[in-house]
Amino acid sequence: MEPEASATAVRTARRGTAALTTLWQRLGLDVDEPQVLSNRGSLMVRMPRAGLVARVSTHTGAQRRDPGWWLATEVAVGRIAHAAGAAVVPPAQVVDAGPHEVDGLWVSLWTDVGSDDTRAIPAESAAALADWHRKLVDAGRDLPVLTVAHQVITEPLSYAARHGFLDAAELAALTREHEEALAGIEGLGTQEVLLHGDAHRGNLLRDGAGLWRWSDLEESCRGPIEWDLAVLGSTPTVEAGRAGLTAYAILTGRPVPSQEELAPWLRLRALEGNAWAIGCAVTFPERYAGPARRYVDEVVERTLNPRRRP
């Protein structure tokens, strides 16, 4: 069975769309026809009559201590970026963008920029990220620093341990991996900017005019530019990533970072992405339990065999 057709996915979609029906009544909006766009860590739902897309924080929200704070930060960054002229999907402007708490779920609302399913090529991803960094280098000075390397890792690991997906030894091994990965970036970084935080092509949407716009800003924060470059340079493949980094360097006049220079950031990024999957494995095991378990076993093995450590 495909994860999207699993019992968990069906249940999540029903709960999320029911919450949106309640929210629409609260906001005084006309009855809409929810269209599920994505049902993974969050439920993304188009509300066509309102011209909005709703992010319902489902599996990601469950693993966070204060999911409303993360969505509030996302909306704030969206407003900062939009005001600065960066290419971003703007938060809703015709109604309160939120976040809204509805039946135990947190929701943010965004302008619907269209439904083009095309993926950006490396040069387009690089151009979009270079534009983001250029326009937002000094923005969001009051935002926290490197939440992607701290709470985005610690919160889902703690959640998974509380719910039995991780035992004490596994949590200890992952905590050690986190400590070592943080030590690996200490003193590194060439420039602090407002990071997108998850700057890969899957978070770029092309609007009706053909402009690539950044979405999914939950992990945005201040931090060294190398974090975003590590994400750009490792997705969706190593080859595409290197092409993206080369294009970024040409556009910005920065040298192309080597794999050795990005290695400490990539180690931390790998832990961050897998920690999120470990948290999601608790509530959406059909999609995330398998890969999460493989990563946990790999880290535990490295702990037992130090010669295999990065």
From TrEMBL:
Top-level taxon: Bacteria
Signal peptide interval: none
InterPro entries according to UniProt: Aminoglycoside_PTrfase, Kinase-like_dom_sf
All residue ranges annotated as the Aminoglycoside phosphotransferase domain in the record: 73-244
Name of the molecule in the record: Aminoglycoside phosphotransferase family protein
Taxon lineage: Bacteria, Bacillati, Actinomycetota, Actinomycetes, Micrococcales
